[in-house]
Amino acid sequence: MSTQFDNVTVLKKGNVYFDGKCVSHTVLFADGTKKTLGVILPSSLNFGTASPEIMEIVSGSCRIRLKGEEAWNTYGAGTQFSVPGNSSFDIEVTETVDYVCHYG
């Protein structure tokens, strides 16, 4: 996993969700793709997805349960998980999570 993105546009206005428990910024690439870089504070939240997403965990630790599944899976720094489009996932953050969300 890369440690930086080069030649990108970063939108200055942050995306603030769940009363500030999740804050991200949008990164736009020359090829039209978009990613978000963010932080999720320790909490239990539910996120909905419009398009498929890959969540890359840069640091921290969390448990994830995808919509329709009973099992929880644990993720930490250097791992990632996929979420289908038009779906959702529960996240239980045990140690502040720094993440990159890849769309599409």
From TrEMBL:
<dbReference type="InterPro" id="IPR014710">
    <property type="entry name" value="RmlC-like_jellyroll"/>
</dbReference>
<dbReference type="InterPro" id="IPR009664">
    <property type="entry name" value="Ppnp"/>
</dbReference>
<keyword id="KW-0808">Transferase</keyword>
<comment type="function">
    <text>Catalyzes the phosphorolysis of diverse nucleosides, yielding D-ribose 1-phosphate and the respective free bases. Can use uridine, adenosine, guanosine, cytidine, thymidine, inosine and xanthosine as substrates. Also catalyzes the reverse reactions.</text>
</comment>
<comment type="similarity">
    <text>Belongs to the nucleoside phosphorylase PpnP family.</text>
</comment>
<keyword id="KW-0328">Glycosyltransferase</keyword>
<dbReference type="Pfam" id="PF06865">
    <property type="entry name" value="Ppnp"/>
</dbReference>
<protein>
    <recommendedName>
        <fullName>Pyrimidine/purine nucleoside phosphorylase</fullName>
        <ecNumber>2.4.2.1</ecNumber>
        <ecNumber>2.4.2.2</ecNumber>
    </recommendedName>
</protein>
<dbReference type="InterPro" id="IPR011051">
    <property type="entry name" value="RmlC_Cupin_sf"/>
</dbReference>
